[in-house]
Specification:
The complex is a heterodimer of chains A (180) and B (298). Chain A has 180 residues and is mainly beta. Chain A contains three helices and nine strands; from the N terminus they run ααβββαββββββ. Chain A has an eight-stranded antiparallel β-barrel. Chain B is built from nine helices and eleven strands.
Chain lengths: 180, 298
């Protein structure tokens, strides 16, 4: 059923527009297709702390998100995500972004830089579009570790490369503003 | 409301806030990182990490020489013993190696000599200052991937590991060090063979010696779908698991069986550090010993 729903949504996306010529000519500025949102970013794997806070702006098919990590106060490890999603069918979006991990060690700080690629599915929002949920899978690639007075280490496809690729699953629950 | 009452209320609120701040501060201060033992992965934890130097004499020497705050960085060494069934015209050779290599590898006896010299040379040989740990992984294959030991090869392989134990025990006795040996393998046959060897049976724990065995899960899923089953192994004291591959279910099962956990990793990343925080293993096996030590000491 989910596959059928997905196929229908792609078909709807690619079908010729039924809009009247007047509606199609309406200036984009008058269409309410932007909002801002804040929410919780949750996961059960060890890719980051189990919960973080995110916020962002949604503009048409694109969503730009920043994720911060309040649990860093507990253990000195912070994962900052800069993410963008692009909806390719209603409820389905590609995900791409960057995760900068900061790890406090005695006498310094090491940074680990990762790229993120993924897929997000978003069910129908609730409360007139104000409450939204997103579920996703992601592939993280650790490209480089640096700082802290330790040698810089880059992905080099030796035996240890296995740990430079990690899959994760996440859920985001957010409050979205009124569209503007 | 009288003025003095409102002042009292304000003072009460302030006291609550200060109290809450102190509690929060104490909580945060209490959230230090776990401090498992740090073992040097494949006897190769000198920086920068270069897995092409795994299980080489040069890397072993450099790893033993690592210092942080004027102390050895590591608590012990995890090294591989590989039985090369093709060497010596098929008679075999016990190598200090990760796998079958195209170039000649050092013998296990040469690695043992370096470890023994280190014990004799220094009064403090580990970060903890009490015990030195040697985890020997007996590699499961005798040639290319999948080539299993014959019973004779298994005995020869295990006896080679026991020779290393004897060499280090002599050095530890001479230099008055405490040492623990962890015999580790992903191949149950080798640990069953070890269990039957008189030299191993003669070993007993004492205030200065400790002997353990570990089932090494090379496979990500020791479940019904897995290639490895804990039930295939003889009784062990430890399980060795990759930090990314262990689930809470595995952890709870191991805990209920009273087994100690060692986590190994290729790279100290988010996932590995998260697993250490969650499972608080007895030891970690890492290429990045210096990073792990500084992370623990934060």
């Amino acid at each position: 059923m989910a596959v059928l729903g997905f196929a229908r949504s792609v078909a709807a996306q690619t079908a010729p527009s039924q809009e009247t010529p007047a509606a199609a000519a309406a200036p984009a500025a008058t269409q309410a297709n932007r909002d801002w949102h804040v929410g919780l970013n949750l996961r059960t794997d060890f890719g980051t702390h189990p919960w973080r806070l995110d916020g962002g702006v949604r503009i048409r098919r694109f969503d730009f998100i920043v994720v911060v990590d309040p649990m860093a106060f507990l253990d000195g490890q912070h994962d900052l995500d800069l993410l963008a999603t692009m909806e390719f069918a209603p409820g389905w979006a590609y995900l791409a972004g960057w995760r900068a991990t900061t790890i406090m060690v005695a006498g310094g700080t090491q940074w680990q830089e990762k790229s993120i690629l993924g897929l997000v599915v978003s069910p129908e929002p609730l409360a007139h579009g104000h409450i939204r949920a997103h579920f996703g899978v992601e592939l993280d690639i650790l490209w480089v570790k640096h700082g802290g007075g330790l040698p810089t280490k880059t992905l080099d496809f030796q035996r240890d490369a296995l740990d430079f690729f990690n899959f994760g699953m996440f859920a985001r629950f957010e409050y979205a503003s009124k569209r503007f | 409301m009288p003025r003095s009452d409102s002042r009292l209320i304000r003072r009460g609120r302030l006291t609550h806030m200060v109290g809450a701040g102190l509690v929060a501060g104490a909580w945060i201060a209490g959230c230090s990182n776990p401090r498992p033992l740090v073992f040097c992965h494949n006897a190769n934890c000198a920086q920068p990490t270069d897995p092409s130097h795994d299980d080489t004499l040069e890397a072993l020497q450099a790893s033993l020489a690592l210092r942080y705050r004027d102390r050895p960085v590591i608590d012990g060494v995890e090294m591989d013993l590989f039985w090369n069934g093709q060497a010596n015209n098929g008679a075999g050779h016990c190598e200090f190696a990760h796998e079958l290599m195209s170039t000649p590898q050092a013998g296990a006896d040469e690695a043992a000599r370096i470890l023994a010299d280190n014990l004799r040379q220094y009064s403090v040989v580990s970060w903890n200052g009490q015990w030195f740990y040697l985890q020997m992984e007996l590699k499961p294959y005798v040639g290319s991937y999948g080539t299993k030991h014959t019973p004779e090869q298994a005995i020869a392989h295990v006896e080679c590991a026991l020779d290393v134990v004897d060499t280090l025990e002599s050095a530890a006795t001479e230099s008055d060090h405490r040492i623990e040996f962890i015999m580790d393998s992903g191949e149950p046959q080798l640990l069953w063979t070890l269990r039957q060897r008189p030299r191993w049976l003669a070993k007993s724990n004492s205030p200065s010696r400790s002997y353990r065995t570990a089932a090494d899960f090379l496979d990500a899923t020791p479940s019904g779908f897995a290639l490895q089953y804990l039930s295939d192994f003889p009784p062990v004291t430890d399980v060795v698991f990759h930090a990314d591959w262990i689930s809470d279910g595995h952890y709870q099962a191991f805990l209920s069986m009273g087994l100690d956990l060692t986590l190994w990793m290729f790279s100290a990343n988010d996932e590995a550090l998260g697993a250490i925080r969650k499972f608080e293993p007895r030891a970690v096996v890492s290429y990045e010993a210096l990073f792990m030590r500084r992370w623990e000491e934060r």
